[in-house]
Every structure is written in C-alpha cells, then in structure tokens.
Amino acid sequence: MKNTRWPLLLAATTAWLATVAATDEAPLSAADRRGVVEQLGQALEANYVYPDKARTIAATLRRHLDAGDYDRVTDRRMFASELTDDLVAASKDLHFAVGVDPIWVADYAAKQDPARAAALREAERREETRKNFGFAGLRYLEGNIAYVDLTHFADPEPGYDAAAAAMRFIENGDAVIYDLRYNNGGYLEMAQLLASQLFPGDKDQELFDYYYTLDGRRVERGQWVLPALPSKRLTGKPVYVLTGSTSFSAAEWFAYTLKKLGRATLVGERTAGGAHPVDRKPVGTDFFVQVPIGQIRDPVDRGDFEGQGVTPDHPVASADALAVAHRLALADLAKADPAKRADADWFAPQLAERPHPDPAALKAITGRYEGRRIDLVAGKLLYTWRDRFRLTLEPLGGDLLAIEGVRDFRFRIVRKGGKVVALERIDRDGTTQSYARLN
Fold first, then answer.
1. Is the backbone of residue 185 left (phi > 0), alpha (psi -120 to 50) or beta?
2. pLDDT number for residue 17
3. Lesser CB count within 10 Å: N end or C end of the chain?
4. Type and span of the H or E element at 291
5. Per-residue pLDDT tens for 317-345?
6. Cα-based distances in Å from 241 to 37, 139, 170, 323, 361
C-alpha cells in the first residue's frame, strides 16, 4: 500500500516501541493518563478498519482507566506497554501497538513541510541502503535452484534497483526458493513486484484486493501482475516459500497468495497471522499508536488469515525448512525432466536428515591414506593432501563424506572385517578411485 508501512512483528519491535527522547521526563499524572486514553480512543475510532469494534475497544480502555488499572503507572514506556497489551487482548489483533516517541510525533507534524519530509525520506533511504533493501542473501543451491533470503519487503521506489538486480540474478534458475521464515513484513508493492516475476505478463492476474482508510476516506485497490519487469519471468518454474512463526504481514500475504493461486509450495511452520495493513498515528505529543487501517482479501475467494496464520503445504520445523524445500525442488524437477534425476539422487545424501556423528566413529576414520590423510580437529574431520591443501569433511551417513566446497565428487569409507581399509573417491558420473589406508 503506497506510503503505508506494513509493520514488523510486534515481538521483534519492542525496542523501538519503547523509545523515549528524554531521560528526565516528568512522571505521568492522572490527567496525563486520561488524556492519552481519550486521544487513543479517538485515533482508533477515526482509523481502525472496523469502526464498530473501535468504539468497543476504546470503551474497554476507558473502563480500565476508570477502574484504576493504570493508576500505578507513571512511566511512559510502561504505560505504552500496558495499553498495547490491552489493545491486543480486546481486539485479538497482533498489529496493534502503542509506543513512546516524541521525535516521531514531531516528525509526523513536520512532514507538512516539504523540505523536512524530503530529509526524512532521505534518512529512511540511507537506512534501507545499509540493509540492502531486505535482500540479505542470493545464491544458487545444488541442482541450479535459486535462493532468495528476504528479511523484509522494502519500499520499491528506493529499493527498485536492488529488487531488479535480485530478480535478474535468479532468472536462470530451474526453480526458486524464497526464504521468508524471519521476514516481518513491509511494503505490499515490493511483494507485488517480486511476485510478478512468477506469472505471465500477457494476461490479467490479480494478486491482492484490499481497502483501507486514508485521512478519513475509504480507498479500495487491487494489485495485479505487472506487465513489464526488469528481468526474465520464471513462468512455469517450481517455486517454494519458506515460512516460520515469525513470518508476518506482507510476508504472509506473499506466501498466502502464491499458495491460493497454485503458484508456490509452502514449507515450514504456520505463520503469525497478521493480515491487516497498518499505519502509525500520533497520540498527543509523546505517544503513537500502530493501528490496522484496512483489510486485504485473496484473489480467489476473498478470504484472509487474520489471527490464524498461513498453513504450509509441508509442515516442518522452520530450522529444517530449507533442506526440505531443496529436496522437494530436486525431486519435482526430476519428475518433470528425467534427465535431472541424477542431480536428485546425487544430492539426496547431502540433504537427508542425519544424526550427529559419534566422536568414536569419527576417530576410527582418521589416519594416513595414499597421498593424503584425515585428522580429527576440534570435533571435525580435516582432509589434507599434498601436505598443503586442507578441507573439512562432513559425514553424510552410510560411510559417505562430503568435501567442503566440492560438488563433483565425495568420499566413501571402505571397511573390511569392521576395519577401515580405504578411502574411495566417487565422482558424479559414477567413476571411482580408491586410496588404501596406510596405518
């Protein structure tokens, strides 16, 4: 939504929600608390997506006030925290948050000044540049599978070049994995840009349909697949989205919409369940409220996932989601193209779940082999050849060993009568070479 920030997950933002400009602030008085509650109620009734519920929630806060529930609170940060808890409890909406930030409140008012507004936008752009506009990692996994690690969805206006570079980077992959396990949301327009790469540009396809409140008026919008992009499209290529319990807001919508449209397979954990777009509004001169201002609907049956989260197609622990998605991608590519079955078979041991190796079993592998040796250093197997080249070995199970940084061959331990007698090199084309153990 243009100029409307989809927030970070509440639990991840307690630090900035509690920001206070001055350390020598005066304690809150009873009149201060009542003023904040009254102005907060007005902000809710003017902006909350559900006007009837806003009045009920505002009345609930006033009842807390009248009952003396806030009487002991004299610290602004603590008051903001208690108001946040009561808002969430009354609404069951995790988007709600009250914060203390007089500088932000002053900046909000100062945005009426074009020069001040431009300075604030430039400061935000510099901060986003430092974060590379959310693109934390881009690489290719084994089997020519593109991987995108996205921490948040940045404003696509300043972040367009970064997004375009990322889209071009992944365009030659046979499949793509978007990692949104720790993505707390952001701008829906960036989600629209990235999702457009996954669909044809010659037919109309809606991605999101929503409405929101803007300065007291209702705005209805729909976002569609963009007809022109800075990259090739990934039409028809398998797509996987990694999700976790901290995937929130716009990250959830990206996953949810692609699942609804049959365009992506979701792997990981159920998401947080924050479906509503939000905005921040000032409350007095010190406080602000983060308030849901609209509702988004999916393009298929006009539903959403507020309070429920998005359920993955393959529920697994978020820590294991990447390996599982990688295995799925290799298997799906092999089904579509039997020539790629070799890739799936070759990388299967490397991606399979395996127990932590037993130190005694690792020790039994160490020793000298023809032209090389294996040592156990700090709990890891270290492979050395020609007395100068050294790489770490990783046990894959079944006596297989992967070599750090090497994709085209691996080792297998050869045993005879329970004893290790050789180290066998296995190339991807099936050829082998054996190195006898010398001690």
1. left
2. 38
3. C
4. strand 287-292
5. 998 999 999 999 999 999 999 999 998 99
6. 41, 15, 14, 12, 37
Q: Rounded CA gap, 26 and 373, in Å?
A: 70
- Using only C-alpha atoms, what is the Rg of the chain? 27
**Single-letter amino acid code for the residue at 372:** R
Whole-angstrom Cα distance, residue 99 to residue 79? 9
Instruction: At 251, give phi and psi (nearest 5°).
Output: -65, -40
Return the higher-pLDDT residue of 117 and 348. Answer: 348
Q: What is the pLDDT of residues 385-394, one digit of tens each?
A: 988 889 999 9
Where do the DSSP E strands lie in 96-159?
A: 97-100, 135-141, 145-150
Measure Cα distances from 229 to 1, 55, 115, 176, 195 in Å: 19, 44, 32, 17, 11
- Span 237-294, pLDDT tens digits: 999 999 999 999 999 999 999 999 999 999 999 999 988 888 899 999 999 999 999 8
| 414's tokens | 């050869």
**What is the pairing mode between strands 145-150 and 175-179?**
parallel
| Average pLDDT score over residue span 285-308 | 91
Q: What residue type is assigned to position 416 of the chain?
A: K
CB 253 within 8 Å of CB 185: no
- Centre a 10 Å sphere on the Cβ of residue 304 and count the other Cβ atoms it contains: 18
What six digits make up the tokens of 292?
């849901």
